[in-house]
Amino acid sequence: MSTIVWIIFAAAVMTFLTRVGGHLVLSRFERIHYRVEAGLNAVPAAVLTTLVAPPAFTNSWQEFAALLFSGLIATRFSMMPMFFSGAAFIILLRHFFPI
Amino acid sequence: MDQAVSAKTARRPRVDFWEGFRKGLPVMVASAPFGLLFGAVAVDNGFSVSEAVLMSATLYAGASQMVGLELFGQKIAPWLIVLSIFAVNFRHVLYSAAVGRRIRHFTFWQKVAAFFLLVDPQYAETEKRGEAGLPVTFAWYLGLATPVYVMWTAEAFIGAVFGNLISDPHAIGLDVLLPIYFLGLVMSFRSRPRWLPVVIASGAASVLAYNTVGSPWHVSLGAIAGILVAAILAKPAETGKN
């Protein structure tokens, strides 16, 4: 089996553990410490930000502009219009300013 | 009226199933572009069509699948990819604890299936139904999940087949679509307490780590910075709000 297939199976098991783990572990505690809960709540935004900031600030100016534009759109519109206008923006930028 | 009808018919699995199914349709439509995008980016990052389908069918976790692709494209150690997927999915722990209380009456295997299918909208709809006092039956739960899961897997196939036909992924911005998608998710969390300090801390730490320690570590170091900031700034009074 290829590395990809192993990664997929390991990730599938880990994903299932997160989905069953809260029921098995977290529900045994009467109260979760507020700092732990705040930390858990912050996990998705914290992880996903690390996948946006480096490409935005270390690649081409076109990528920075496209992400800035998408971020501004996201303050007013939902995911779907934000995503498609961001995609259109980068396609146009790359068309008119190649490299 | 609607609620009275559903309460009366709650024990008829077929009625429950279709009631859930109807709730699943808008979720299915909203997730469709991302299911297709996943397939297309997967083949662009070296996955075969069947590997893309396998990932959608076994993980069934949109954001983390995209994270897996992004990191795989950067030739990062496999265990770090798995760890990052785990980190993105860690929020499910909270859903799981909440939904577990609603499905106590499921059999063991029904619970296994239910937790496997526990994606964000599944959690939201189940909580909504439970809070409304309506019965969360297995048939309803499965009906809700069916259109979303079946189409999510099918979209990986369709996206991957079409991804193979894309001759110039750079021109259509395929490499930037994932950061845009992740940014959209980050922005969708912005009503959470301490969102801005978390994002600033994670963003600054990840850029710093990216330029100093190097590529795979910017994810874990950036994430830890954001989580620490959230924990440090937390106040006792705010618990239970989220």
UniProtKB/TrEMBL annotation, chain A:
Highest taxon in the source lineage: Bacteria
Residue spans crossing the bilayer: 6-26, 38-57, 77-97
InterPro entries: Brnchd-chn_aa_trnsp_AzlD (IPR008407)
UniProt-listed Pfam families: AzlD
Annotated keywords: Membrane, Transmembrane, Transmembrane helix
Record bears the keyword Membrane: yes
Protein name (Swiss-Prot/TrEMBL): Branched-chain amino acid transport
Lineage per the UniProt record: Bacteria, Pseudomonadati, Pseudomonadota, Alphaproteobacteria, Hyphomicrobiales
UniProtKB/TrEMBL annotation, chain B:
GO cellular component, one term: plasma membrane
One GO-annotated biological process of the protein: L-valine transmembrane transport
InterPro entries: Brnchd-chn_aa_trnsp_permease (IPR011606)
Record field: transmembrane: 21-43, 76-94, 138-163, 169-188, 195-211, 217-234
Subcellular localization, as worded in the UniProt entry: Cell membrane
Membrane topology: Multi-pass membrane protein
Main subcellular location of this protein, as a coarse class: membrane
Keywords in alphabetical order: Cell membrane, Membrane, Transmembrane, Transmembrane helix, Transport
Keyword Cell membrane applies: yes
Family named by the database record: Belongs to the AzlC family.
Protein name (Swiss-Prot/TrEMBL): Branched-chain amino acid ABC transporter permease
Lineage: Bacteria, Pseudomonadati, Pseudomonadota, Alphaproteobacteria, Hyphomicrobiales
